[in-house]
Amino acid sequence: MSLSVDLKDLDVLTSNAKQIQDDVLKEILTLNANTEYLQRFLHGSSYKDFFKKNVPVVSYDDVKPYIERVANGEPSDVISGGPITRFLGSSGTTGGKQKIFPINDKYIETLGYLSTLSSLVTSRHFNDKDAKKGKKMLFLYNRSESTTPSGLLVALASTSFVMSPYFTNRPSKCNSDFTSPDQVILCPDNNQSVYCHLLCGLSQRDEVVGVGSSFAYALVQAINVLQIYWKELSSNIRSGHVSKWITDLNCRNSVSAILGGPNPELADVIEKECSNKSWEGIISRLWPKAKYFECIITGQMAQYIPTLEFYSNKLPIVSTIYGSSESLFGINLDPLSKPQDVSYTFLPNISYFEFLPVDHEGEMASIVDLVDVKLGCYYEPVITNYFGLHRYLIGDILEVTGFYNSTPQFRFVRRKNMVLSVEIEETTEEDILKASARATLVLDQSTNLMLTGFTCYADISTFPGHYVFYWELKAKDVNYVVELDENVLAECCYALEESFDSFYRKLRSKDGLIGALEIRVVQEGTFDSLMEYFISQGGSVGQYKTPMCIKSSEALAVLENKVLARFYTKKYLLLDL
Ligand code: AMP
């Protein structure tokens, strides 16, 4: 199926989802029916009914041995009819350990296709003269690739994309669309690249119409870096010289060319804005023509909505794409929808999509096709891609929110396995996000502090076990130090607990099987350290998603080393009658 990038094609695609999905499955099965993996179930057949009846629904551990054999040098056809030319490493921040998935150029091409479609949809909604000729300040990053024992490359999707000819030869080249030259994006040292991204963005401040990254955290991290380095950045702009510690020559030379020489007037403007005691709206003040943020802000990323709103005076946040290393899924066709209301329209030409209802009974029988999902129901996607994954459970829970022509649209609800549990209760990512929004209100009403990062875990090392939330707080006014008021933080603990379900509250108050919830306030910069820890394990800034619940003891140790103070709920919880 060819991937033409034209908004008009969206109607054709979404009106013929059923036929296109059947064609995609036929194409995949014809390509893969004789692989060692599928041969066992299909005996060479490429019939849909046979496929649905015989091919099992699987998770990573089921296919891992096959994937590893190809990684270790056996031919691609152990698992895939088409050539496997590289592997994608998952970010490792959604479900624990890093996994690898076989792909070839088709995946990269599809990622480019979705990004371009999503950009077209966004610019259609911000369609004024400035937006058309302006640039985007995009915080995109590269990370060094590794190889499998057989010499095939392993990299994150974001790295594979920016390193591919598809990106470097993109039609809208000449760096006219981004403020940063490719040399900055491709710089393997992410500290140098974030600094240079900011320098390029500041020196072209009047052209910036959009500010973006793949996932929201990279934007929050860039704002943190700006807060630390603004004096040095403006001094570079004043003198026209890039700081000495930018030692990557490609990066240095390309950024020097963009600076073009001393610019004291611009340096004055930057210093005036950044030395203001409040950083509220700093993004809109430094980049006055910026009309939107563009990044994934749903799911785990939703905790950053208030932070981005604070720094931008509530610029719209366009949540662009839904995808994973296993397959890409779809785009947000309504860029102006609030982050909380975002839905993604699945594109039927990418992979073959099936859906397992949540709370299903008799797994195989209850799985439905893309066009057969029901409005308001919750499902886990099961994907069959071109590269060797067949009926693979993604581990995300989605809700059907509507249809675009005949193609369903989904709200991202949560990761399936990300739950807190001390006893037999299950507190999901969605519950945690809702509770945090309530606790943040308490914080907002009573203090001048904002919550810039959080995560949590279920501490069962004591009896009764209890939930522990790690909170990083920052004063809204940069000149103030963070002062912690015990009563307010105890109220925040209470607000978190109060919004959990009645089962939690019963175990907590009546049965005493869950202890008082605890907030551990950590030093500023702790969540950057947490990101650095995950990056050292194979992640990347570009694809980093702060885990909403922490399971790894090493990651917990990073947080524990930075705890400043501990607070507990003091009041008794009210039970539903
Ligand atoms: P990875 O393969 O490591 O990049 O992680 C893919 C996972 O990131 C998905 O399975 C989702 O859990 C999460 N993810 C990707 N896109 C979105 C999105 N638009 N909204 C919420 N979560 C997302």
TrEMBL record:
Keywords: Ligase. The keyword Ligase applies. Residues 344-415 form the GH3 middle domain. InterPro entries: GH3, GH3_C, GH3_M. Residues 442-553 form the GH3 C-terminal domain. The keyword Calcium does not apply. It comes from the Eukaryota. Belongs to the IAA-amido conjugating enzyme family. PANTHER family: AUXIN-RESPONSIVE GH3 FAMILY PROTEIN, GH3 DOMAIN-CONTAINING PROTEIN. This is 4-substituted benzoates-glutamate ligase GH3.12-like. It comes from Camelina sativa (False flax). The gene is LOC104742392.
